[in-house]
Amino acid sequence: MKSSKHIRTIIGSVCIIISIVIIGCSTLTAVKVPLGNYNPVFAGDYSVYKGKHIYLMNFDNQANDTTIWYYYSLDKKFSYSTNDTIHNYFWHAFRNAFAKAGMRVSHVDNPDLTAPAMWITLLSITDVSYSVRVTVQKTGTTILAEKYTIQEPPLEEKDRNLAVLEQRAYRMTNRLIETIMK
């Protein structure tokens, strides 16, 4: 009899904790950042890349401030998601941007093994900062291994609406790509 009461108390406590977690998580506002809406826009002239070949390899998400599907605002009020995993979003965004710059982009399904191979590790992704490590190899020798970070100032609360936040995410993606291409 006593153990039955103890089990009910434990189950009741677990239910309360789960309810608190669910209610707490539901306060996030979801910002959709679909890749189909992403348009690479360059502020600079990158014609030097026209005709260059790149083998765009894997993007690895090692950012502790993301999940495989989401990244967040610093205050945890907004979650950002694409219609794919975060690392695939960035892979496709880079591919689209490089192609727009006139580069010939190969990938794992159709590799150009003579082209420099590039892969990126996501280190930290939030609504105010993207930080990545870029590694480039040519004929098996690492020719670049650099960390790149771009930052944006936090928006005022009154300026944080879904359309503004989505466009800001695309601008940050463009800035990251341009920073790497410089």
SSE blueprint:
Blueprint: H1 2-25, E1 29-32, E2 53-61, E3 70-72, E4 78-81, H2 86-100, E5 104-106, E6 117-125, E7 129-138, E8 141-151, H3 162-181
Parallel strand pairs: 1-4, 2-5, 2-6
Antiparallel strand pairs: 3-4, 6-7, 7-8
Mean pLDDT reading: 90
Tally of contiguous helical segments: 3
Q: How would you write the strand order of the largest sheet?
A: 5-2-6-7-8
Given as residue ranges, the uncertain stretches (5+ residues, pLDDT < 50) are: 19-24
- Tell me the radius of gyration: 21 Å
Please give the alpha-carbon distance between the first and last residues. Answer: 72 Å
User: How many DSSP-defined strands?
Assistant: 8
Largest sheet: 5 strands, mixed
Strand content: 25-35%
Portion in helices: 25-40%
Elements, N to C (H/E): HEEEEHEEEEH
Shape: globular
Q: What is the structural class?
A: alpha/beta
